[in-house]
Write a structure and sequence with these properties.
- It is built from five helices and no strands.
- The longest helix is centred in the C-terminal third of the chain and has 40 residues.
- The termini are far apart.
- 15% of the residues are buried.
């Protein structure tokens, strides 16, 4: 029984990780579009992430984008662990996957809306500082 449980959890973590990679890559386009609509540089979020984590200005975009994808992988793996361990949350048919994905998407949107106001102001401040340094 333990071997079957471990196999199920391993598969759930694998699929969660793959979903995290796909989700983080899929969000790059909408994030670029929203930045352009807000009249900000298209890559400002990833530059800010990189600078916050100590990267220099020339490498900040690559570091920030890497952190974005790494965060997606970690969130996907955690989601896989939770859905693998809790039988009622286990996704074993496509309809359950769609329902749980929709719930996770709403959680992500609410988290984003909580942080958007303050993050937007901080991003603007960092952009202004970067422009003054040039």
């Amino acid at each position: 029984m333990s071997q079957i449980q471990n196999s199920t959890i391993s598969k759930a973590v694998l699929f969660g990780t793959i979903g995290g990679i796909a989700g983080s890559l899929a969000m790059i386009g909408p994030k670029i579009i929203s930045n352009i609509q807000l009249e900000m540089p298209y890559n400002v979020n990833w530059i800010v992430f990189g600078i916050v984590f100590g990267a220099d200005k020339s490498n900040a975009f690559a570091v920030g984008l890497g952190l974005h994808i790494l965060t997606g992988i970690i969130v996907g793996a955690i989601y896989g662990i939770i859905t693998g361990k809790i039988t009622k949350l286990r996704i074993n048919k496509i309809s359950r996957g769609i329902v749980f994905e929709d719930g996770q998407n709403k959680d992500g949107k609410s988290l984003y809306s909580l942080t958007k106001g303050n993050g937007y102001k901080k991003s603007r401040e960092i952009i202004q500082k970067l422009k003054k340094q040039k």
